[in-house]
Amino acid sequence: MTPAYQLQCIDCHAEYDPAEIIYTCPSCGGLLEVVYDLPAIEVDFHTSGECRSVWKYRSLLPVDIEPVTIGEGGTPLYRLGRLTLNIDANASASEIFVKHEGLNPTGSFKDRGMTVGVSKAIELGMKTVACASTGNTSASLATYAARAGIPAVVFLPGGQVALGKVAQALIHGAKVLNIRGNFDEALRLMRQVCDEYGFYLLNSINPFRLEGQKTIAFEIADELGWEVPDRLILPVGNAGNISAIYKGFKELKMCGITDSIPKMTGIQAEGSRPVVDAIERELEAIEPEQNPETIATAIRIGDPVNAAKALRAIRESGGLAISVTDEEIVEAQRNLASLEGIGVEPASATSIAGMRKLLADGLIDADERIVCVTTGHILKDPTEVVDVCTKPTWVDADIDAVRRAVFG
Ligand code: AN7
Prior knowledge:
This protein is of the alpha/beta class.
């Protein structure tokens, strides 16, 4: 059964009919979120049996129609072994998990948001869906739009999107524009185009999309036997996911299913760290980074639209925000791949690089139970992987040459 819900402004708390097509508060411009009358809801997380998926948690999701789905969620939670030994001796005593969201159908966590967001678009009778994207959002949107049978329009920061993601947006049939500008500029343009043409905006400013992403929290707690980790570590770009996961953990607690909330810990790249700066300097709001730069192109975002929600998530949960360098990102990506068999794209490796740095600097305790979210699959950005790896050795098709090369 679908719960009753409203849209509410996080700043002035004005409430709106969820059928209104609005992305920010018409009265004060604040961000919106979906609110439920939680005490009135009979939470039933067992409708789809043992199989974990986004729709297992339907009793806390705001969709009233048969959803547009291709089997999102149900991603593995791995306990780390060799990598923790490699970090430091103390950490090996702690429980560190990786929730590998790269194993969603299109290779990123965005699918959790899109199954809800595109379903909502259909429910609201929208004719075209749209987003600006550093890549994964566009890949996911194009896929779900294809599944739903409606057109998708995506704006990319031209030349700054990883190959796998562009390929997905194209093959699934989206109209793809390479904007001569960065992501923040592409999003500003897309918001204007959506207002003018009535396209349904599915960036993470859309509060329904974030509802899908909050199921990451539900799944982690579910997999841990309805226990909550001490800390959640994840990359921050447009700051939607950290806000969504925090909301998920809050709702579980408010429903009496769990009794605590993890310390939400956001990791940004050194060249693109407005949220980290705001936390460090105790600013009320972020100061946008005009020229964000990092090898982790997914989070090359200078003006995160969900910053207000993310700052609250970090502060209210007693969390942290730090940045890592591109070198630390690549090293973490390599370690996760070679020591644990988990292949992730650079943005996702920020979780691991951040965890390592926090432990090394003594900013977090080695006995914490930590979950790092890895948000995207390694095959998303094959160009980067090939660039940072030793090249294959060319050998003649000759047994002596091969024998020499194998042990060379
Ligand atoms: C792999 O696709 O913003 O902080 O347009 O692809 O919720 O934005 C991607 C973001 C982390 C950051 N990891 O999440 C987009 C886009 C990966 C990502 C993030 C993204 P948010």
